[in-house]
Amino acid sequence: MALRARALYDFRSENPGEISLREHEVLSLCSEQDIEGWLEGVNSRGDRGLFPASYVQVIRAPEPGPGPGPGPAGDGGPGAPARYANVPPGGFEPLPLPLPLPAAPPASAFQPPAAGFPYGGGALQPPPQQPYGGGYQASQGSDDDWDDEWDDSSTVADEPGALGGGAYPDLDGSSGPGAAGRYRLSTRSDLSLGARGGAAPQHPPSGAKSSATVSRNLNRFSTFVKSGGEAFVLGEASGFVKDGDKLCVVLGPYGPEWQENPYPFQCTIDDPTKQTKFKGMKSYISYKLVPTHTQVPVHRRYKHFDWLYARLAEKFPVISVPHLPEKQATGRFEEDFISKRRKGLIWWMNHMASHPVLAQCDVFQHFLTCPSSTDEKAWKQGKRKAEKDEMVGANFFLTLSTPPAAALDLQEVESKIDGFKCFTKKMDDSALQLNHTANEFARKQVTGFKKEYQKVGQSFRGLSQAFELDQQAFSAGLNQAIAFTGDAYDAIGELFAEQPRQDLDPVMDLLALYQGHLANFPDIIHVQKGALTKVKESRRHVEEGKMEVQKADGIQDRCNTISFATLAEIHHFHQIRNVYWTWYLKKENARLRNGRENSALCLQKPQKKFFAS
């Protein structure tokens, strides 16, 4: 007999992997075990997917039909899920699942997430790889396909000493290769959604003292959930943090800010070179990177940058990692495209090296210092260690070391976040408008203005040729002066065509960096706003006498940690913004002065020739 449930309310799917429900509709369940408040099943229309567990009621009456006699649910009878060990032979078969379910743990024991199941067996925190969408997927292009250098089947656990002393032990004291790359979560008796082990969730009476819990977001695909922010705020993150992994937020003169990098450095990107592999069947562009703190050159392809971006975007949910320069399907080896990509990578690298957290990140240092061409084993070990980093998602927030929470006022924080949200929206709109205007103006200078000045110059040369028909000696100087005037207009047209490379291209490169930069902040703000919502909800429960003050204080403390990190990232954004745009304006003013002087010289040249004659 298959498990069934009846829909209590209508539910409309909004994300991939969900199915819609109609009130009173009978569904077939894949399992009675809910996944963070969601069940998987098949509706009456044959659609299979996830739906909220609170929207349905499990039907426990056995269906009539042949087979063994009915027995009580949970005692090995037909009402029990087939994956339990006490199901007798000949019991029912559950609906086939696309992924295997782990064995059910005892109600008092902790079981880490099982490999292969979307959200694990006994834990409620999803692993870093989200199966139903979300998260950054490294873009794949024809010039950056993964090859054997990246895709062999070995793992970091296969390399002796690759994890630096072995994997962390599980909470039950065990350790081994299976513990690597897995969340080690504590049991959540206070935040549990319901009884485990196959029993239906039992909701306490609404008037019971200290019985309320902070609700979970229904949208399990929101940034707040996928980033691990919700799990951290609700106290579900638990892991082992080394001292070297701590990220410090300090109080500066303008509020929270990231602790400065004690060893700042820069990195140059030069010598883009076309190289081949597989006896010339595959071509790519290699860039030489030279960090100032090592002075040892390393060579990287664009796919290496792409991999690094994916790792950083996954690891740091409240830090903005700017987007890389876009790929191009055709013309990948044209000089203009290579030059433009190199300038974009330079801007990107400058931003990364200037960030106090990103610059010191292990994966970033591995990218800058490990010579993949000469020490392939060390490169692969560091690469796979980064891909199996446990301090991502909810566990990332455990690495944050913040000032005392008394220094933070939630109302003031909310006001600052709202103000920054308006700022980023306005700056994004203004950057798009400026980029469009600059592109249009550059196009006119390269084509329109140059062509118009050439027309004027051609007209003057035509007049000079007409004057040369007069063979009088006293007219020779005048004829030459008019010819020089035509040449001067041609030179001015060339100056217009070259000028965008000097003034407009740099600002468009900077705008491209900030467009990918600003696009990250809505998600960062969403994480912080989600944490504030949980704090407000917990306070309301305390006022109603439904939650202990200690639990609410824990939620607020964890929200403060996210708020400190968000404000520190906002401070760094403004600080670097002032540096970049001040540098650009100083350089632009100098170029404008030089441009005016060059134009004046071009116009004075024919006049001097004329008066000299």
Automatic annotation (TrEMBL):
Pfam families: BAR_3_WASP_bdg (PF10456), PX (PF00787), SH3_9 (PF14604). Belongs to the sorting nexin family. The keyword Transmembrane does not apply. One of its GO terms (cellular component) is cytoplasmic vesicle membrane. The keyword Transport applies. Its main location: membrane. This is Sorting nexin. It is found in: Cytoplasmic vesicle membrane. Residues 59-91, 112-213 are annotated as: Disordered. One of its GO terms (biological process) is protein transport.
